[in-house]
Inverse folding.
């Protein structure tokens, strides 16, 4: 199964993508995670990307498209993937279609996670990430057992620099301007299923499973 998860930052795409990847044997491909790893490793691409990410702007299409295409061409994506955070612009969506078509493939479905903007600001402010293993927590919906410590590896939990309120609002503006056209792009191609991404993580999971069995 080849899926795209679309929705504003903090809609819960990553949480659900990780769970679905395990449940269905798919590979989660999150361009934000790849970019953050490259920045932490100090690669040229990573450092260039960081300057955009820190202010909530999008990394240029040609950089992200190259990264996504390279990642999708690896063996672990052959049986299927969940793209989380890509495509975020119409040129990215077109490039993805073209790359898949070259391999005789197409997307099965695009799931849109619908959540209102004030909820997004609240959720991003509550998000904590493990500095060691990358596990994501949320002090509201999924707190760690011990404050500030990762349940899995005991690493330090930190808030992402781009989850500060001003940056979240900037990311939302960028999202409205660039990513809403992507939603329309897939709706026009009858690929889009919308789910309400509000409520408990478990409730959203059930809506997602339902959406995946009923198109
Ligand atoms: P995320 O982890 O998906 O919230 O992404 C964090 C940041 O990485 C975004 O605010 C962008 O700066 C950058 N980024 C991730 N994916 C993309 C993409 N598909 N296109 C452009 N920038 C991206």
């Amino acid at each position: 199964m080849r899926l795209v998860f679309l929705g504003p930052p903090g809609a819960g795409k990553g949480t659900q993508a990780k769970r679905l990847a395990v449940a269905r044997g798919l590979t989660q491909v999150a361009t934000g995670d790849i970019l953050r790893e490259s920045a932490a490793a100090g690669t040229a691409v990573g450092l260039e990307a960081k300057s955009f990410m820190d202010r909530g702007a999008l990394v240029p299409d040609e950089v992200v498209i190259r990264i996504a295409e390279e990642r999708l061409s690896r063996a672990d994506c052959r049986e299927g993937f969940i793209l989380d955070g890509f495509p975020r612009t119409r040129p990215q969506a077109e490039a993805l279609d073209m790359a898949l078509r070259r391999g005789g493939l197409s997307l099965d479905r695009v799931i849109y996670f619908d959540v209102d903007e004030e909820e997004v600001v609240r959720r991003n402010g509550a998000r904590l990430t493990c500095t060691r293993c990358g596990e994501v927590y949320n002090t509201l919906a999924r707190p760690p057992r011990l404050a500030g410590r990762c349940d899995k590896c005991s690493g330090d939990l930190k808030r992402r620099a781009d989850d500060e309120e001003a940056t979240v609002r900037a990311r939302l503006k960028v999202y409205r301007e660039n990513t809403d056209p992507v939603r329309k792009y897939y709706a026009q191609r009858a690929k889009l299923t919308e789910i309400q991404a509000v409520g408990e993580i478990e409730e959203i999971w059930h809506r997602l499973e339902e959406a995946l069995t009923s198109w």
In short: The chain has one domain: 2-115+176-213.
